[in-house]
Protein: Carbonic anhydrase
Organism: Ceratitis capitata
Amino acid sequence: MVLKKPLFFLLHLLAARQIADQSAPEWDYRDTNRWIADYPTCGGAQQSPINLDHYNSVGSLKPALKFRNYAQPLAGRLTLVNNGHTADIMLPETIRGPRPTITGGLLNGIYEAQSVHFHWGSPGGGRGSEHTVNGYRYDVEVHIVHKNMIYGNVQEAMQRPDGLAVLAIMINIADFPQSFYPGLNRVFNTLPRVRAAETNATINSQLSLNHFLGDVDTRNFFAYRGSLTTPPCSEAVTWHVFPRPLLVSRDLVIIHPHNHICILFIFDADCKLLRAPTEKRRVSME
Ligand SMILES: [Zn+2]
């Protein structure tokens, strides 16, 4: 694994409780070089995140992504959890019963939504997305984590190369955004209530997964096979990354939760190393 500065904040693909192996070594962002020692897969050849480059990408006619039950309200109120690494939302079923699912793109099979979490910039330290596009880094990256339905649970899916699918939605801060995303706003406004690790807060609104997608252009994506971005770095993730960002108000992200969440979760400005690809990856672009 090649690690480069500068660094940015926060990643983590799955809530700590999903990785619930009590014997697993502790990890944090202060010394990511230790990750390989404790988790050898973190030095693998298919590690994420990467820079997505139009020049090095292979244009291909993949099927469009299809979303089911993304517009259905999720059952009950969502709980935002500070799990010590990120702000994570475990997703319930929808009020109709089934979970939201995705198919198409680079996926074979049906993947059902499990959780949502965020990657932010650090105060004074820079932007926070994990993936970059043509070397450009966005302010925030939202991950919606899905599990292949043929596997019983996330733990099992993490052991399989086709186990997980993650959608990455980019957000940039704007002074005068043209759109308003009420669902994201409610999530952001809840962040200050989970400043301490192992705390949680209820989001006082009924949300659907479409609230997290906003009006992102889901026809335009990069897709590639990669990994969890934090230990155990399992190479089990099919990524679909939407390069056109949502624009949100500067007040909402910077003044309010942005500073809090980085201070809280990471303790200093240097939060996360971008992991460079070890080789030129063939990435398909729809
Ligand atoms: Zn993530």
User: Anything to note?
Assistant: The pocket of zinc ion is lined by residues 11-13, 117, 119, 143, 229 (CB under 6 Å). The domain at 2-16+28-285 is CATH 3.10.200.10 (Carbonic Anhydrase II). Residues 1-22, 254-282 have pLDDT under 50 and may be disordered. The helical segments are 34-38, 154-157, 182-190, 210-213, 250-266.
